[in-house]
Amino acid sequence: MKLLKNLDLTKGNILKSIVLFTIPISIGNVFQQLYNFVDAVIVGQTMGSNAYVAVGVTGSLTFLVLGFANGLASGLAVPASQYFGAKDYEKVRRGVATSIIIALVVGLILTLASLLCSDLLLKMINTSPSLFYNAEQYINAIFAGIIATIFYNLISHMLRALGDSKTPLIALIIAAILNVGLDFLFIAVFKWGTAGAGWATVLSQFLAGIACFIYMFYKYPYTRVKWADFKLTKDMTLYHIKLSIPMAFQFSIVAIGLIVQQSAVNSLDAIYNGVDGHIQDLYATAYVNASKINNFPSSILMALGTAMATYCGQNYGAKNAQRIKNGLIQATFVNIGLSIILASLSIPLSPYIVPLLSSDVPSESIPSTQYYLLIQGCFYCFLGGIYVYRSSLQGLGKSYITIAVGTIELVARIVVSILFTKYFEWQGLCFSDVTAWFFANIILIPAVIIVYKKIKIKFAEYKSCDDDNFKKLQNDDCVTSNNK
């Protein structure tokens, strides 16, 4: 199928290339959300709404750590896309080895730190005592498997950086099926409870990562790392860190805002529990329900961003400024169209999806879930804009800008979560994400324009540079003979 063909994004019809590259990533992301959704369904149907909500309330905490891990992995793959675009295949191989070492070291540190702090984090978000044990069991299993998660994300992003969005899709579909089987085995047969759901996710991702790595090793000769490639060089190591660490911190900064948001939701339940027969953890349930449903459209918009990171990275390596500009314009229109379609599906379908999540989800939570999704759905284009422009900057080697964007998101989400929840309760909290998205775009759009103009000037100067000096392009120190 042409859809699954490896793509060189430096040539051909721009819109067609972006769409064809995005579709397999979208399918893969949806499958990933699907097996996360099935996780929740199996937990909810076999263990009840308490266990289901307990797993759900850990979402912001797992995103704090796993978001950092995924941001690191996606950032580490950017040099590979740039080297591939420049046809420097030796550096592609060395870049893969460098990325593996950095990912392993960071993964070990994250694992130890997160396991030591898991209880503290759960207390920090005001986790209800009725949910604490199940939440703790689940989150510790997820944190123990951080290295497996990083490994899978790293190899997947590497393959996409080389124009292969097919292999991660196939691996993810297999992992989704495996995850469902392991869920039943660990939860229903072994009786491991919520920890079983966590271990099923970790193991399925690890096996998917191994499969992707083996395929990459044999399919693409320029990724066949040798022992000599694992000897780190200062320039390459610093370049990988420069692109990956800011992206990783950007995800974690956003996660801090989500933690405050989750804490505000839990505080609403703490206020209303027991008052006039108010159902325990009603808002936590509605928030988890909305998050589970909202993850599907969000994952599709995220796929467009992932495609743009590779697109911009390859064309940056090929020094094609005009193609970068045209791609950004095309992706903007694709985002708007996708946002309208996704909103028109997620909002009306939510009342039919919620009952699937647990055998005893309170019907009183459904209106709150719908209201949350309505507000979010009307502004999906802001969320898509974040993914498109942030990932494009990442592909262009400007990951540091994403920290400023993440900080803006953090401040907006915290202010709205605290103030709006205080005065407008649940209705106010529903606007916290939308406000964060809006202000992030206020920073991102001018940043993309400024970066593009600088790159256009730089590429014009590089026309007189020898191709052997491509490494100087990464360090912004190429000086043409006219400038000397």
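Next protein, fold it too.
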Amino acid sequence: MNQEMGLFITLALGLFILLGSVIVFVTKNSNKVVNFSISMAFGVMICLGLFELLPEALEHMQEGSQAWQPLLIGFTVVGVLLLGILDKFVPDHDLMDQSEKEINENLHHIGIVASIALILHNIIEGMAIFSTVSTNMNMGLMMCIGVGLHNIPLGMVITSTIYKYNKSIKKTIGASILISISTFLGGVIMYFISNMITPLTLGILLSITLGMILYIVLLELLPHVLEHKKESTTLVGVGVGILVLFISKLF
């Protein structure tokens, strides 16, 4: 049952990117949507990493290996580096706040390299989330909310820059759909190899996931939250994110 839910969640996660695409075309005040979404994602994901992923990764690492300390630290660093390398080729989340000239200078990100990097990024993310759901359904759902909220502004950025490049709504939505289903592909891959997962393998996957969460929280979300800390949507978003995670722990 958890595996089927894992596939559903990785499919739903890609829809957050499409939601970002829809927002670009239907709203005129997208900055507030972006700020609330990023702030709420920050609240959810910082609590998720500290109170859910870290203890779960520790438990499986200790069960799978006596040398769990260096393995936990090492694969967490791998998660940080992996996402950091891939994000070098992905459009900047703050692109919507940039000037016309700066946007034009960043359009080269919408080429083949950016698309491949983002698809690979989402496949790895889908594999990590599927593994998390298989371990702990509640933690997987919270991770879906956190990463999904983080994906809304990413979808907005991708859509606005691709549309600026090709001036075609149909082609823009088509590209967004292709990118969004890559997360589901990661879930499908894990579905077929899940019978080979051992406690140590699961601990490694969760450690890599923890590293990815740390990268997103510290290097992507935190700078935005600090920059917009005086805005009401920031405080409300962070508070709602933290509240959502702690409410989920009651069930």
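About the second fold: The chain has a mean pLDDT of 78.
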